[in-house]
Design goal:
Elements: E1 4-10, E2 13-19, H1 25-43, H2 51-57, E3 63-66, H3 67-82, H4 92-97, E4 129-132, E5 136-140, H5 150-165, E6 173-177, E7 180-184, E8 192-195, E9 205-208, E10 211-217, E11 222-225, E12 228-231, E13 246-253, H6 256-269, H7 273-279, E14 283-288, E15 295-297
Antiparallel strand pairs: 1-2, 2-6, 3-5, 4-5, 6-7, 7-10, 8-9, 10-13, 11-12, 13-14, 14-15
Length: 312
């Protein structure tokens, strides 16, 4: 079965869409371009004109936002609830305090960026007020809080693009937004082959037929500060970048959003992550930071040696 792909750069990361039905590719590519532009305009904290920037600037007051931010926020709040607050959209101020105050491509990663201790947490995801309707929503960010939808919104978008693309034709579709990956429809004969971070076990690729895959890693977005090395995964319980024994965690779940939330929560949970993942019935592979063998949880997908497409 032939596969064709569309690739670009957007949302500060790589975008790749693959389909098993070549005639579908132009329509799928157009859908993808429109969707990623819409999310950037709605949810980028680095754009003063984005819906989320306006809501953050008016924290404590209801702000009218469009349908994209409505749906992305709803997805992020659902993942916060599902993880018991381990994936927390109100940590935007903590991310900025850690030194991530501009687009990652504009950061001086080898310099000594200024960082400061996180402010005492007064609000959580439960305090975010979202009043949706048919065309958008009234969104109230808690006063003194910066809402940051982070990677969950990107994973949600991968799910949304894949589901919309499924209606464009009979082919199978893979959507990969910087490692937040969703597949729908009939897979290639050998399945979708997905790249995963290497570990001491030598595993680099697995095969899936359905669902979503996401990887959270400490070394993907890391920079130096006057207080030492920092990364973008915040532990909401402390406000600091998570101190975790895992270099990376990759999760296979029903959707990319679920996989992303679980992989992020696992970095935050540290040594408790395998038990937490097993309790939630999730398949995962956790690569230790010390180079010891990876830990597999649940029905982790089978390894493969044939590379078709990359994610993770």
């Amino acid at each position: 079965m032939t596969t064709v792909a569309f690739t670009t750069e957007a949302l500060g990361t790589s975008v790749r869409v693959v389909t098993t039905e070549p005639p579908m590719l132009p329509a799928v590519a157009a859908l993808t371009r429109s969707a990623v532009a819409g999310l950037d305009a709605a949810a980028s904290r680095f754009r003063e004109d984005s819906d989320i920037a306006r809501a953050n600037a008016s924290a404590g007051t209801a702000v009218r936002v469009g349908a994209v931010l409505r749906d992305a926020t709803r997805a992020c709040l659902a993942m916060a609830r599902a993880t018991g607050g381990l994936v927390e959209p109100t940590v935007g101020g903590d991310v900025v305090a850690a030194g991530y105050d501009r687009r990652f491509v504009d950061m001086d990663l080898d310099g000594r960026r200024i960082s400061r201790p996180p402010a005492p947490r007064r609000h959580t995801w439960r305090d975010v007020a979202l009043d949706p309707d048919d065309t958008g929503a009234w969104l109230t960010v808690p006063a003194g809080t910066l809402l940051d939808l982070g990677a969950v919104a990107k994973a949600w978008l991968a799910d949304s693009i894949a589901q919309a693309a499924a209606g464009l034709g009979p082919g199978g579709v893979l959507v990969d937004l910087g490692g937040d990956l969703r597949v729908v429809g009939m897979p290639p004969r050998s399945g979708w082959v997905i790249g995963v971070p290497p570990g001491a076990d030598g595993q680099r690729m697995v095969t899936i037929d359905s669902g979503g895959v996401a990887t959270s890693a400490q070394d993907v977005r890391r920079w130096n500060t006057a207080a030492g090395s920092a990364h973008h995964i915040i532990d909401p319980r402390t406000g600091w970048p998570a101190a975790s024994p895992w270099a990376s965690v990759t999760v296979h779940a029903a959707t990319a959003a679920q996989a992303n939330a679980a992989s992020t929560a696992s970095i935050v949970l540290g040594h408790e992550a395998p038990t937490w993942l097993d309790r939630h019935g999730l398949a995962a592979r956790l690569v230790p930071i010390d180079g010891s063998p990876a830990t597999a949880v649940g029905a982790w997908p089978r390894p493969t040696r044939v590379e078709v497409c990359r994610g993770g």
